[in-house]
Amino acid sequence: MMTETAATIDPKEAAHFGAMAAEWWDPAGSSAMLHKLNPVRLRYIRTAIDRHWPGREQAFRPLTGKRALDVGCGAGLLAEPLARLGATVTGLDAAPENIAAAAAHARGQHLAIDYRATPVEDMAEDGFDLVTSMEVIEHVADPAAFVAALAAKLAPDGLMILSTPNRTALSRFAMITIGESVGGIPKGTHDWHKFITPDELTVLLEGAGLDVIDSSGLSFAPARGFTLSANTAINYLLTARHR
Q: What pTM did the predictor assign?
């Protein structure tokens, strides 16, 4: 969860998330909300993978032979599961502290992940089969440039999957009023005015030459936690591919 492109990076955002690097893998620490979100996001990603590359729905490693790029990887909460699904994973983050924490954790898990404190637009490589960026675009200074940089790394037959909070009264209440007071999200993590609606993000993706092919809301209920749903009022995921 970090900004990544040199043209769009906000130094304050990088410093904010870099300061949390030591606690990133603590499910009760400053990234507790991401730990709760991660299983639901992975469920969505796995469904998208199985739909786009059919025939391996029962496989433990359906991404074998695929290259994945996780932009704004933090300390690797998503990059590690993608590696376990068989992908050759590159993880980028703007905060060197996060990259150091990610690399150390991956070594402890015996996972070979290429972590870099490198802006996505500075990468020479492209042609990634899967490009993910979870809870990142709401932290960048130029969302259109960020989406264009992501699209430039996507293979012609690849999938891009993004998640981000919606800009609604409910998201402000849930993620800032409650989330940043008693919900475990560190204060100052979110600026509601930078949240992006699904329609706005769709326009950005289309402007980068992509079509949105699937979407889902991320809802929260105290008894069940986070679930995939049709309700996008708090948070949502979009899947896109090249036209």
A: 0.89
